[in-house]
Amino acid sequence: MKQHNILASAIVAVVMAAALIIPDSASAQLKGLGRKDLQQHDLSIPGREAVQVLVDFKPGVTAPKHSHPGEEIIYVTEGVLEYRLEGKASVTLKTGDVLFIPYGVKHEVKNVGNVEAKELATYIVEKGKPLVVLAK
């Protein structure tokens, strides 16, 4: 039974992560969203790990509303991105700007510029949990 739960959790994690980078026939806007995993390491804090990802957005593309099982630290490396965090006013960041997203806060991101935009996302998250949890 335990192995079944672990396998089911792993499948759900892969599907959720893929939903952010793989086109879906029901949501053509995801076609222009890409992700490159850079590194993943255990931390000295038990049960926590650091994950770094480079995410690229074609013009007009939105990453759907989601959350993470930990903190997210954003650094915009190219372009202009609009972040909409639940309970906060939207914020527009350009190259060189940074943003901190607290644990579990639902958010979405849109490339509001005319060229490809990229962010370096650093996560401090609970180890073993899906990195991305799509909002319902």
UniProtKB/TrEMBL annotation:
GO terms for molecular function: dioxygenase activity. It holds the Pfam family Cupin_2. Keywords: Dioxygenase, Oxidoreductase. SUPFAM superfamilies: RmlC-like cupins. Residues 54-120 form the Cupin type-2 domain. The keyword Acetylation does not apply. The keyword Ubl conjugation does not apply. This is Quercetin dioxygenase-like cupin family protein. It comes from Chitinophaga ginsengisoli.
